[in-house]
Amino acid sequence: MPEPLFGLKHIFGIGHMTRQQIESLVNMGDDFIDLNTRDLRKASTLKGKTVINLFFENSTRTRTSFEIAGKRLSADVINISASTSATKKGESLLDTGQTLAAMNPHVLVIRHSVAGTCEFLSEYLKNTALINAGDGSHEHPTQILTDLLTLKRSVGDIQGKTMTIVGDITNSRVARSHMLAAKIMGYKVRIVAPKTLLPSQVERYGCEVFYNFDEALQGTDILYMLRVQTERMTTNCYFPSVREYHEAYGLNRKRLKAAGDHCMVMHPGPMNRGVEISSDVADSMESLVLKQVEHGVAVRMAALTALCGGGEPS
Predict the structure, then answer these.
(1) What is the per-residue pLDDT across 210-220, written as a single tens digit (0 to 9) for each?
(2) Under 8 Å CB-to-CB from 236, ≥6 apart: which residues?
(3) Is 173 within 8 Å of 135 (Cβ atoms)?
(4) How distant is the alpha carbon of residue 216 from its chain centre?
(5) pTM over 0.85, yes/no
(6) Per-residue pLDDT for 313 more than 80?
(7) C-beta of residue 51 within 8 angstroms of C-beta of residue 57
(8) 272: burial class by Cβ within 10 Å (0-12, 13-18, 19+)?
(9) What distance, in Å, lies between the first and last C-alpha atoms of the chain?
(10) CA 128 to chain CA centroid, nearest Å
(11) Domains identified in the chain and CATH numbers
């Protein structure tokens, strides 16, 4: 098997990567965008390679983009969900991982509710590259690479820019990965949330913390909205009501205007319209949401190519 590119044997998280590795993946993703818009959206880059997508949590964007990414590079792609895996029969995660690795795939893409799943499996699966497609509330590295590519093409150099992340910070692996990426890439992060949706000691990431959304708007270049992840909550006591949450922490046209004409809007999906974001903002010219989806395919093509030691787009 060829040596992986950029010194990447696995992609566990942004916190495991250097600035050069991040920039290399983003730039390679940028190169793949043209392939994704031409009539014949196919390259032979990963012909003969096998990619297994193993998802223990529901996903539309991430899972589909990894599948499309692999197939556009001519890889053999197999999708496995928790509902159809042997874990439903009592098999352990380790046994599932070792079973799949014994079939000699080149890359295993994993989404799991437990933080550190990929790192755990890497101790036992020595000949398979692993990509973290989201592990609990820990990290979501390919989403952040996607966001950085989207920002590169939309606002240029992100160094010195201010990203304000609003919503359910406690349960968001995207928020945590952006806080880590900001330290590496040189942009600023502001966090806006009710105290009930903030992790303890969040300031240790070097971000500014606001409880009042309107106070955080001035000087913001990117408004990054997050949904409330009710599926990870054990009670319904985090805020009084959806209506009150939207009034306090929802992005509407008035707040976007207050941030300034230059401000762009991002969301990792899925969106809950009328909760964290209004439809007129989600569908506005300032919204980069669909660009994030489009660029997610290109970034995942870059991630698969890098781990398989592939070449440039062709």
Answers:
(1) 999 999 999 99
(2) 230
(3) yes
(4) 24
(5) yes
(6) no
(7) no
(8) middle
(9) 20
(10) 22
(11) 5-140+293-307 (3.40.50.1370), 141-292 (3.40.50.1370)
